[in-house]
Amino acid sequence: MTVVDNCEALGMEGELRLSEAGARDYFALLKPRVMSLVVFTAFAGLVLAPGHIHPVLGAIAILCIAVGAGASGALNMWYDADIDAVMSRTARRPIPAGRILPTEALAFGLTLSVFSVAILGLAVNWFAAGLLAFTIFFYAVVYTMWLKRSTPQNIVIGGAAGAFPPMVGWACVTGGVSLDSILLFLVIFLWTPAHFWALALFKMRDYGAVGVPMLPNVAGIPATKRQIALYAVLTAAAGVAPALTGLSSPFYGAFAAVLGLGFVYYSVGVWRMPEGDEKMVAAKKLFGFSLVYLFAIFLALLVDHYVVTFATLPGGAH
Ligand code: HEM
Ligand SMILES: CC(C)=CCC/C(C)=C/CC/C(C)=C/COP(=O)(O)OP(=O)(O)O
User: What does this protein do (predicted)?
Assistant: First the structure.
């Protein structure tokens, strides 16, 4: 029995309805697993930025970015509840499962968005807060409401939303944008298509059932495989670039090159996947590796930064 059925059984139709959602359901609205990696990239941006931020302010900044990212996930789930109810991967989410009412999710997402942006602005700086607001808007409105259901390039353009968080973290320290923060953006921006189209390949039926024009459904499997390989090569190149601008050391560059080769290797695996392969094992492997790749790149940027900082401290290298 869904929440709506419950309300109707209780004769509450037409009155203010509230579900009996638990904290766990509200937490699920924040898309915590996806957002944990998003927040990690924002943290890396904050650490790598030149300058200094007080650790307490740094912690507030990361909390605001985490809450803002989660809020955008709640707004996405509010708008997409109709298609989430049909897709096997998403049918058990709190709104389609009837544990949270759409209006509750909307109110939750809007409230958290406003608070996260306002607190970031008041405590840290308004440029970073504006960029956080723009990122929430980009994911919830530009991607979710506009692009997702209208073009197979939805995630190429919409992927910018997922790429902004390191720039937000960076802006928390510097109050602005720089070539290096744009480079961090580019790594995620170019990574997103291979990350998502790998999943879209083995979830083609789901997307077909709801009529969302994901690339494999619109352009076909061979064209998607080619696009994945292209973006994997571009991602591998962008991943090495921080070593070329001086943001990171040549050791990072070598590590990123190996990881990038791994990403290209898995994308070639998808390219060579026979079209009749129902299980699409190669696509599942690429999806899994995409997560390892992005986490490892940002971890390497952080480790490299701390090692180089330590080594260049007076007496630190001895
Ligand atoms: C518009 C860009 C993106 C799209 C369309 C996309 C799409 C997806 C989808 C559909 C899933 C499966 C989610 C689920 O079943 O819960 C997923 C999983 C995931 N994505 Fe993305 N993603 C995007 C960007 C990102 C970014 C920027 C990050 C991190 C920086 C990220 C990190 C993850 C993680 C960690 C998972 C695994 C979650 C789990 O294990 O449940 N994604 N992505
Ligand atoms: C700071 C801030 C606001 C960060 C936002 C980061 C961001 C845009 C992450 C993208 C996350 C994601 C799972 C997108 C897929 O949406 P979907 O609707 O295609 O996937 P679904 O079908 O799983 O809902």
Answer: Converts heme B (protoheme IX) to heme O by substitution of the vinyl group on carbon 2 of heme B porphyrin ring with a hydroxyethyl farnesyl side group.
CB atoms within 10 A of CB 45: 27
Q: Which of 29, 106, 112, 31 is nearest to 67 (CA)?
A: 112
Which residues have C-beta within 8 Å of that of residue 198, sequence separation ≥ 6? 228, 270, 283, 284, 286, 287, 290
Confirm whether the ipTM is greater than 0.85: yes
How far is it, in rounded angstroms, from Cα 243 to Cα 276?
41
For residue range 251-268, what is the model confidence (pLDDT) as tens digits? 999 999 999 999 999 999
Residue with CA nearest ligand 1 atom 34: 34
Give the number of the atom of ligand 1 that is nearest the alpha carbon of residue 40: 30
Residues 60 and 165 in one domain: yes
Q: Which of 148, 138, 287 is nearest to 213 (CA)?
A: 148
C-alpha–C-alpha distance, residues 33 and 52, integer Å: 29
Contact 220/197 with Cβ under 8 angstroms? Answer: no
Tell me the residue range of the domain where 59 lies. 22-177
Ligand 1 touching residue 200 (CB < 6 A): no
CA angle at residue 151 from 147 to 152, to 5 degrees?
115
CATH number of domain containing 79: 1.10.357.140
In terms of domains, do 48 and 133 share one?
yes
Q: Which amino acid is at 273?
A: M
